[in-house]
From TrEMBL:
The protein's assembly and partners: Ceramide-sensitive subunit of the serine palmitoyltransferase (SPT) complex, which is also composed of SPTLC1, SPTLC2/3 and SPTSSA/B.
Coarse class of the protein's main subcellular location: membrane
The species this protein was found in: Oncorhynchus kisutch (Coho salmon)
A GO cellular component entry from the record: endoplasmic reticulum membrane
Protein name (record): ORMDL sphingolipid biosynthesis regulator 1
GN (gene name): ORMDL1
InterPro entries in alphabetical order: ORMDL
Cell compartment(s), UniProt: Membrane
Length: 131
């Protein structure tokens, strides 16, 4: 019995990552995490990039791969309670835009952080030794 349920999906976890604005919200959340970590005075920029990566990857691992089930009561007779969120995403169809986005976004975050960490290091060396 689904009293007060206003969605038409059998399992809302299957389509939540395709909703409007979820990718922008995800990117803004990672950006806000980075800004919050930058505001801590005793963290250097490379440490903040490392912490951003570690916190993001740990959170996504727990959210996507460790926690099973759904926060909603679903009429699917318990099928969703044995699946992780990654397995429920887009009804398990591979190579959808959401799966591609959530596969490539940690890679882009890692490459960007490594690039910017090295740029900060090179800039500091360049300012110390101009010739």
């Amino acid at each position: 019995m689904n009293v007060g349920v206003a969605h038409s999906e059998v399992n809302p976890n299957t389509r939540v990552m395709n909703s409007r604005g979820i990718w922008l919200t995800y990117a803004l959340g990672v950006g806000m995490l980075h800004i919050v970590l930058l505001s801590i005075p005793f963290f250097s920029v490379p440490v903040v990039w490392t912490l951003t990566n570690v916190i993001h990857n740990f959170g996504m691992y727990v959210f996507m791969h460790a926690v099973k089930g759904t926060p909603f009561e679903t009429p699917d007779q318990g099928k969703a309670r044995l699946l992780t969120h990654w397995e429920q995403l887009d009804y398990g169809v591979q190579f959808t835009s959401s799966r591609k986005f959530f596969t490539i976004s940690p890679i882009i975050l890692y490459v960007a952080s490594r690039h910017l960490e090295q740029e900060v290091t090179f800039l500091s060396i360049g300012f110390r030794y101009p010739f």
